[in-house]
């Protein structure tokens, strides 16, 4: 790893077109764009799991100034994420790479403290691309306010079961020993969201 890592993170050989694709030519998108490009370079070198984090501190946790903070995060991430997906596809890597975008919860549709939003674990959006997912598929919807999932809710255990399935693992058969008993990563429930699979 010590021999391979310096080359993997050396972006000097990337073309200007590639750097622009990831938004590295723009001060707003350059930081996250650099991380997305590094992720692509790691994936093409066989790294099996790469996590990108957006919004240090409370960047997405907008209990105040939701429009300002989320607007800034969206500006920082939109172009780099689109670049990552396009680059993975162009290099033939998207079909074998599962991209998962999301967080631990959403935001409520009503304000908190005047211009912010509280945590919303009842209805929020995540998306997945590549890696065995069906293109353009939307599953579920929230109520008219956007507070609770009402049509085809997907529990976090279902989401995890689906991710594991795309990675070639059956969540029921994958177990680990914990306190003397076999446990599943999806605890005691979870169904693969089959309509999302290609």
Describe this entry's structure for a reader.
The chain has 198 residues and is an alpha+beta fold. The protein contains five helices and eight strands. The chain has helices at 5-8, 16-21, 30-44, 66-90, 156-166, and strands at 98-101, 106-112, 116-120, 127-130, 141-142, 149-151, 176-178, 181-183. The strands form four sheets. A two-stranded antiparallel ribbon has the order 1-4. A two-stranded antiparallel sheet has the order 2-3. The protein has a two-stranded antiparallel sheet with strand order 5-6. It is globular. The protein starts with a helix and ends in a 15-residue tail after the last strand.
Q: Mind sketching the topology for me?
A:
Elements: H1 5-8, H2 16-21, H3 30-44, H4 66-90, E1 98-101, E2 106-112, E3 116-120, E4 127-130, E5 141-142, E6 149-151, H5 156-166, E7 176-178, E8 181-183
Antiparallel strand pairs: 1-4, 2-3, 5-6, 7-8
Helix pairs in contact: 3-4
Parts with pLDDT < 50 across at least 5 consecutive residues: none
Number of strands: 8
Biggest sheet features: 2 strands, antiparallel
- The pLDDT mean sits at 93
Please identify the structural class as seen in this structure. alpha+beta
Helix count, per DSSP? Answer: 5
Morphology: globular
The percentage of residues in β strands lies in 15-25%
Assembly state (oligomeric): single chain
Strand order of the largest sheet: 1-4
Distance between the termini: 35 Å
Estimated helix fraction: 25-40%
What is the N-to-C succession of helices and strands? HHHHEEEEEEHEE
Query: What is the radius of gyration?
Result: 19 Å
């Amino acid at each position: 790893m010590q021999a391979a890592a310096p080359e993997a993170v050396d972006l000097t050989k990337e073309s200007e077109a590639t750097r622009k694709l990831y938004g590295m030519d723009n001060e707003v998108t350059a930081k996250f764009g650099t991380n997305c490009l590094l992720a692509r370079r790691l994936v093409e070198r066989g790294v099996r799991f790469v996590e990108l984090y957006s919004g240090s501190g409370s960047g997405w946790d907008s209990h105040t100034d939701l429009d300002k903070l989320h607007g800034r995060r969206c500006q920082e991430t939109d172009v780099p994420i689109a670049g990552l997906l396009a680059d993975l596809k162009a290099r033939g890597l998207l079909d074998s790479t599962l991209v998962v975008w999301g967080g631990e919860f959403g935001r409520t549709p009503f304000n908190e403290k005047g211009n912010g939003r509280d945590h919303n674990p009842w209805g929020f959006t995540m998306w997945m691309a590549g890696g065995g997912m069906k293109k353009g598929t939307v599953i579920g919807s929230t109520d008219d306010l956007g507070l609770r999932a009402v049509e085809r809710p997907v529990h976090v255990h279902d989401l995890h079961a689906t991710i594991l399935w795309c990675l070639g693992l059956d969540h029921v058969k994958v177990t680990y020993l914990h306190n003397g008993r076999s446990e599943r990563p999806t605890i005691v429930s979870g169904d693969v969201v089959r309509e999302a699979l290609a």
